Every structure is written in C-alpha cells, then in structure tokens.
Amino acid sequence: xxxxxxxxxxxxxxxxxxxxxxxxxxxxxxxxxxxxxxxxxxxxxxxxxxxxxxxxxxxxxxxxxxxxxxxxxxxxxxxxxxxxxxxxxxxxxxxxxxxxxxxxxxxxxxxxxxxxxxxxxxxxxxxxxxxxxxxxxxxxxxxxxxxxxxxxxxxxxxxxxxxxxxxxxxxxxxxxxxxxxxxxxxxxxxxxxxxxxxxxxx
Length: 202
Description:
InterPro entries: LRR_dom_sf, PRK1-6/SRF4-like. With 202 residues, the chain is mainly beta. It has 2 helices and 15 strands.
C-alpha cells in the first residue's frame, strides 16, 4: 500500500531504475535523506509540513527510467526535461495533487494513457520523445491549459470534439495524428498542427 510508505522510500522507488541515480541522491547504494536532494538549479521543494511538493530534475544528465507510480501524494510539480531517460511511463497513477508535469526532450517510448490524468492538472509536456500509438483526448482534465504531444510517433484518427474548454495550447506538430479541430468550439485554443494530418477549421 503506497500510503504506508514514507516520502523517502517513495522517492527512492521513483528513481530506482535511473542508472546514475547518484546524480540525484548522492550515493547509489545508500541514498541521502531527501532533504538533501537539492541543488542551486534543481531538486526538491517542501511545504511547511516538510512534504515534497515540487521535483525538478532538468538537464541532470540522468539516464535509465523512472517509475511515476511512486510519486508522493503531495507533489504538485514534476520536471524531468532534457535528460536521457527512456522506457515507458505510467500516467494512470499520478497523485490527484499534480498540476504540472514536464517529461519533454528525453527518449521515452511506448503508448501513453491520457484518460486518467490528475483532475487538477494544468500542463502536460511530452514533446520530443519516442512515444507511439494513438491518443484518447476525450477525457482530459477539465482544468488542462497546455498539452504538448509534438515530435513523437503518435498516430491515428483522433477525436478532438471533447477537449476541455480550459485548453489554451495544443501542440501536435510532427506527429501522424489525424482529425479535425473546430476552432469555433474552443475560442481560447491555439492549436499547432504543422507536419501532422490534423486540420484546424472554423
């Protein structure tokens, strides 16, 4: 049961399959306390109760995979951009508290499930990876403002008729997705569809 585990244990499980995890936790075999997983430009941030609310590991030169099912329930922000991470990602067991997640510019692969994202999520950036398969955009969070799927191997006919009204930016360039976006239904939406088979029409 995830709820019985300490935040220390959860974080160690989250990064367990990162090959050079010592870049984050100091010692591969004996990780330092999570309170020390902090650097000037990246690391963890805590609230007044010392719960982790923010994890940012940008450009840390880390490689391997991450196990997102172990993200602590208090986390609101996740950033692993500009690394060499690979493998698949589980987006179905993220904490309800999560609002922003950036996994862009890595080597993640496989399919992604977008139908069980956290209910308060505002930004999800998956661009510039090797994700593939179809995407279901009919059950996105009602709070979502930005979704970046561009520069991936996503493909197939896609239903754009049930996007959240909150969505402001939708990036689909350099994919093989197809379908029609009716701009009149989403007056705030800026859809970027260059080098895809998606048509944005009035």
